[in-house]
Structures
1.
Amino acid sequence: MPDTINLTINDKKVTAKAGQTLLQVCREQGLDIPTLCYLEDLFPSGACRMCVVEVEGARGLVPSCAFPASEGQVVHTHSPRARRARKTIVELLLANHPQECLTCVRSENCGLQSLAHDLGVREIPYEGARREHPIDASSVALVRDPEKCILCGRCVRVCEEIQGVSAIDFTRRGFQTVIEPAFGTSLTDTACVNCGQCILVCPTGALREQSELKEVWDAINDPDKIVLVQVAPAIRATIGEEFGMQPGTLVTGKLAAALRRIGFDKIFDTDVAADLTIMEEGSELVQRLTTGNMPLPMITSCSPGWVKYMEHFYPELIDHLSTAKSPHMMLGTLLKTYYAEKNNINPEKIVVVSIMPCTAKKYEVQRPEMNDSGFQDVDFVLTTRETARLIKLAGIKFENLPDEKFDEAFGTASGAAVIFGATGGVMEAALRTAQFMLTQPDGVATEQVTGEMLSKVNFSAVRGLVGVKEAEVDLNGIKLKVAVANGLTNARTLVEQIVAGTSPYQFIEIMGCPGGCIGGGGGPIPTTTEIRKKRIAAIYTEDENLPLRASHDNPIIKELYATYLGKPLGEKSHHLLHTSYTKRGL
Amino acid sequence: MSQTTQNNLMDACCAQCTHCVATPCARYIECRSNGPLCHTDAACTARLEAARRVALHEQAQPIVFFGAGTCGLAGGMSEIIPALHEQLAEKGIEITLKEVGCFGLCHREPMMDVKLPGRPRVCFDAVDVKKAKEIIERYIINDDLPADYSMGYINSADAKTDSPEFKALTNLYDMPLLAKQPRNVLQNCGIIDPNSLPEYVARGGYIALTKALNAGDNGKLVINEVDASGLRGRGGGGFPTARKWSMARAQERKPKYLVCNADEGDPGAFMDRSVLEGDPHRVIEGMMLAALAIGADHGYIYCRAEYPLAIKRLEHSIAVLESIGLLGDNILGSGFSFHMKLKKGAGAFVCGEETALLASIEGKRGMPKVRPPYPVQSGLWGQPTCINNVETFANVPSIVANGGAWFASVGTAKSKGTKVFALTGKIAKGGLVEVPMGMTLREVIFEVGGGILDARPFKAVQIGGPSGGCIPEHLLDTPVDYDNLIQVGAMMGSGGMVVMDDQTCMVDLARFFMEFIRNESCGKCIPCREGTTRMLEILERIVRPYSDEDPTATIQRFKSITALEQLAPVIKDTALCGLGMTAPNPVLATLRYFRDEYEAHVYERKCPAGACRSLLTFTIDAEKCVGCTMCAKNCPANCISGTVKKPHVINNDACLHCGVCLDTCRFGAVVAE
C-alpha cells in the first residue's frame, strides 16, 4: 500500500496520507466541513451526517469523518447537493429543538446555533411534534435537558469510551430516542462520577453544570457572611479563554483582581493547600512504604470523579486510595478552623467558595464526611465557566484588569502546587517532596532548597497527555516505580493490574479527566487535545518561574505545621485533613 | 409429535458402524443414503432401506400430516391436532401423526394431508375439527376418499398406479398455482417433518456438505459452484454471494464468524420464517457450506424472537446435529469444525441491518455503524464476519449438490435461480411462492397468485417491504429480477409482495409504511430520525379532515407535495444505513406513479379510492333511509339525528369521519363522497 494518495477535492489536486479520512484531508486543506458528532481520537459514529460530502461514483453522500480518502477520488465538499443536505439536517434539528437560544446557557457557544448561522438557516420549514422530556436535575453536579439534546451521542461515547462509566446511553427508538440512564432512572442513581466530560463535548445546552451562582451571589451580598474564595491551580491557565484569550494564557493576577472586585472578602490560592496535600500524601506514601500497614500501590485521591469511580467500580480496592483530602477540601477545613481561630472569626459566618475546573467537586463538597471543621467544609463550588459568568455579571472587563495578588494568609504556593492542574503534576510534586522526606523523617523542612536538590525537581517522564505513563525514580537511593493515568478508561488499566496482582507500582496518580484538571469538566468549551496541551504548557511555565519549586519549602506550610497542625499525619492533621471512602458498588 | 423412531435412519445399522462424535466417519451421510458402505450385510442393508422408506413416508402405517407452520396453527390447526388425538385414542387406531411446515398455500390453511400405504398423499384444505374427524373416519377407517374436501394429491414413489386417488383428484403440482413454481428452497417445506433429520437426509440432505468436505479443498469447491451459479444475496441487496464469500475467505485474521440474518421484519414478508419452520436443516447445511468456504468455525443465527416456532425448530435441529457430530469439531472426520449459536432478536426492525444486527449479537443496542469498515473486515467483536440471509443459505445445498450450472439454468442474465415471495394483500391465493427469476409480475400475481381477491381491478403491487417500491398496472410486465425492479423504482428486497386493488389509497399506503419506518428508525442519524417524522406528519396533514381551527393548515397542505419532494432526496442521500436511505421510498414510489392521487387529496380534498374516510363527507339518502336509528345509536360523535321510522340527518360539523354509519346501515342509505 502506497504511503500517499492523490485525489481531487473541489477541482484541486491534493495529496493525502494513506489511512486519512476525507475530513482530515479537507481540514488540512483549510476546508471547513461542519461536524456535530465528530470527536477527535474516537472511532467516528457517523450519526449526525453534517460532514457529508459528494464523492463521485458513491451511492449517496458520504460522511467525510469516517470515509477513507482513496486514490483518484473526486470529492466535492460544498456542492449544491452537499450544502442542501447539511442545511436540511440543521432545519430538521431546529424543528425539534426548543427555541430558547436567548436564554440558553450555551448561547453564543453552541454548535447547533453556529451551524444554523453559518449555513444560513433563516426559517424552519417543518412544523410538527417536538420531543418532550423532563429535565433531570437530580445530580448535584450535572443537569441534563434532553429537549435540547440533538442526540449526537458525543456524551455517550465520552462516558463509555474515555471514562468507562457508561452512565448514560441511547434508549427507546426513532423519534422517541433519548439519551438517559438505564431504565429511565435519574443521573444521581447511577454510577455517574460527575466528571462533566459530557458537558465539554455537548454541542448544545443539553448538558450543563448544576449552577450555584445565585447562592454565591446571595452570600456575597449578605453582610453577615464572610465569603472566602479559593482558586484551583488549573483556573489561572484556562479562564482567560472565556474572555476570548488564547488557550494557555496565564491570568493569575487578573483573576485575583476580578474576584476582589466581585466582593469576596478574601481571595486565597488552593495551591497552598496543594502543598499541604503533598505533605500529607507524601508522608502517607512514606509510611505505607516503610510500615506496610496499608496496601500498595497508593493511589492519589484529589480527583473526586476518580474517587467515586473507585467506590463504584472497585469498592474492594478503596484502601489503595490515599486518605488525604483533596487540596480545596483541606483549605476549606482550615479556613473554618485554623483561619477562623487565628483571626477571631465565628466560623458559622464563613462561607467558603471553591473555584474549580471540576463538576465533581460539587459532589465532593456535599459528601457527608466533609465536615471536619464542624460545618460543611466548603459551601459552594463554582466551575470555571460559572466564574466567568459571575465576572461578566459583575460588569467587570476582565481583560482590562490589573494584576493583583492573592490574600496573604493562603496566597503563596510552590511550583509543585501549580502543576497539580496537569496530569502527572501531583506525582511530580509528590516526588519532589518525597525525596526530601525520605531523608528528613520528621517531614518538616528546615533549610532552603539546595542547588543539588533543584536538579531533581523536574520529573519529566510523568508529564504529557499520554494516557498511561510510568517511571522508575531513584529517590536518594530508594527506587520507586510509579505510574500516572488520565481519563478513567486509562485509570482502569492500572487498577486492573492491581486486581490481577501484577501491579509493579508503589505510587499511582490518577486524574479523572483527560489531561488532568486543565481538561476538567468545569472548564471552558471547547476543550480539545490541542487546547489541553497549551494549558499544560502554561502550567509548567508558571512552575518554572516560581522561586519555590517544592511543597515542603513553602513557608506558609511550615508555619501551619509549626503553629497548628504539628506534623504530617499527626493527630490534628489526621482529623482535619484526611477522609474515608464508601464502598458503593454498582 | 415427530414419528416414533424405532428405526432411525441416523442410527448405526450394527456394531460395525463406528460413527459417533468422537470417531466421525467421512462416509456417514452417504452411507445413510446408499449404505451400508463399509461392510456387506443383508440385514444391515434391509434395516437402512426400511429406515429410508420410513423417512420418505413410504411406510406401512397411514400418516396424517398437519400444516403446523405459524399460518396453519393460526388458522386453527392448534385446535384440530388435540381433537384428532382424542379421536384416534377413542377408536384405538394406530397411525403416524406428523407436523409439517408451511406448504405455501397459506390461503388454504389449515391443511391436512393423509397418506395411506401404497397411495399418493392426499391434501385436504381449509379443514376444521369436524371436517378433520370426518376425513379420518371416511378415508382412513372406511377407505372412502372424500374427494370433495381435497384439493389434490402429491405423488409418492410407493403409490400404486391403480390407486383411486389418481382418478378422483388432480396432481397438486399440475395446478397453475404450483406448476409455475420450480421449487428449490421450498422443496421440502410442507412435505417433511422439520424436526426429523432422517427425512431431510433421505431427500439428499447433507450430501452437498459431504461432497464439499470430501473435495478436501477447504471449501474451494463451494465458492466455485456458488460463483458458477450466479447466486446473489436474497436479503435484498443482491450482492453476488460468491464475491462476498471470497472476500471473507481472503481475510487472514481468525476467528472468523458466519452470521445468518433471520431478522425478517418487513410487513407482509414471511419467507424466511416459513423456510426455518419447514426445512431448518436446509439453512443449517447452507451455513455449514458457507462456513467451510470462508474459513469460519463459529456461526450465529440471528432470529427474531417473534418467530418462536422457527427458534424452537432451529434449536432442536442444532441439538440433533451436535449429538451426532454434524456440528462441532472435526465434522465427518474432515478437520472442519463449526459451532453454531442461536441469538434471539428483541424485535427491532433495524436489527435486520447487518451492522446493527452484529451490535445486537454483541449485546449492545442495535444501531448501525458507519461503513467502511465492512463486516467482512471488522464485524462481530471486530473480527472478519460474513452475513447472509436465510434464503441465500437455503439455496446453497442444491447448488453444491447439483452444480452451479444447474442453478444458473433458471433465471435471467444477471439474476439466476428462483426467488421466494410472500404474496399477500388483496390477492386471491396468498401464500409463499417460489418463482424463477425473470417471471413477469403479471404472471406472478395473476397466474401463480390467482389474480386479485374478489376479482377487483388491480392497482399496484408493493415489492421490497416498506423500503421498496410500488409498481402500477402498466408495469406489470416487468420481469422480476434485481435490476429490472430497480429500474422501475422498486427493489427485490427480501421478498414481500403486497398486492393492492382499486380500494387501496396510495397516500394512505405511503402513510402506513412511513409510520412503520418512523417507529422503527433506530434514532441514530438525524435524517432518518427527524426526517421520517416530518414526512409522516406531512402525509397525515394531507389526509386530515378539514378544520377551521388552524388557518395555516391549508397553506401547509398545499405545500405538502413539494415539501415531501424536497425532504425525500436528502434523507436518501444522507441517512446512515440502508433502512434510512430507503426510508423515503414509500413516498417517492407512490408519488412517481400515483401523483394524481396525491393531488386529489391535496387540492380537491378527495380520496379517489374512498379509503381515507377522513376526507369523505357522509350524508344520508332520505329516500333509502327507513329510520331504523342504527346509525344514530352507533355514531360515536352523536351527530346523527332523526326520529324513528323517519329519514335521519348527519351533522357534518361534528362528524369524526369514522364511517361507522356507513358500516352499520343495512339499507345502503349512507352515502360517502
2.
Amino acid sequence: MSSPGHNVAHQFDDAVQQRDASTLGMWVFLVTEVMMFGGLFATYVLYRSAYPEAFAAASHHLNAQLGAMNTLVLLGSSLTMALAVRSAQHGARFGTVAGLLSTIALGSVFLGVKAYEYAHKFEEKLVPGPYFVFDGPEGTHAELFFSLYFAMTGLHALHMVIGVGVLGTLAVMAARGRFSVAYHNPIEIGGLYWHFVDIVWIYLFPLLYLLGRH
Amino acid sequence: MSHAVNPHSTPLATLIMVFLALVALTGLTVGVAYIDLGAWSTPVALLIATVKALLVVVIFMELRFGQPLTWLAAVTGVLFMALLIGLTMADVISRGWLGVPGR
C-alpha cells in the first residue's frame, strides 16, 4: 500500500491542497465550457425571440418522447457517476469500476438514440443545407431552428463522446488499482465534467423539444 | 492506512433521492409543456431546468462541500452567461427606441 503523500505532486503541500487545486481548476474549465455553449444559447434566445412561430413549428418535428427518454437516460448516468465517485471516496474499487462502466453504458445509449434521431432528420429532409425542405410559411426561419438544433445537440454529443473516452480511461485506471481513499481526484474531476454535460442537456431538452406543444 | 483526502461523502440515500427528484421534475417539465401557459411557458420551463441544474451542481457535483473559490468559479459562470444573453438582448430590444438615421 502506498504511503500518504505518495500521489502528491511536489508543488503541493499535501493531498488536501492538491485536491482543492484540481477541483478549482476543473470548475474554471467548466466556466469556459459554459461560455462556449453560452454563445449558442445566446444565438438561440436572439433568433427565437425574433421568430417564435417558426421555432415552435420546427420544434414539433422533433420527437419529444425520444428526447424525454434520453433525458432520463442521462439523469441515470449522472446517478451512476455520482455512485462511482462515492465508491472511490470509500476506496471501493469494484463499485468505482461498476459505476463508471454503467455511466459509459448509459452515455452510449444516449448517443445511440441521438444517432437514430439524426438519421431520421436526414430522411425527413430537415437537415439545413441545399436539401432542406420544410412545409410552412417560414421555412427559412425553421431552417435556422434546425441549424441551432444540430449545432447545440452536436456540440453536446461531442462532449458526451469525449466523456465516454475519459470515463473509459478512468475505469481502466480504477480496475488496475490506481485509486485509493487517499487519492481519487481524477474520478471526482471526471464526474464534474460528466455532470456538467448533463446540465447542458437539462436546458437543451425543454428549449429544443418542448416548444409550443400545448 | 492513509487518511481520506476528502472528509465529505454524499450518503447513498441522498443521491437516490436527488435522482428521483430529477426524474419527477423531468415529468413536470414535459407535463407543463402540454398546458397552455401563454407567455409563462418558457419562464416555467427554465425555472424547472434551473432547479434541476442546482440539484446536480450542489449535490451531485458536491459544490456544497466546495471551497469558497470553487463557489466563486461557479457563480462567475452564471454571471457571465447572464451578461452575454442580457446585453445581447438589451441591444436587440432597444434598437428601435431611438430614431437613429441609417440604422
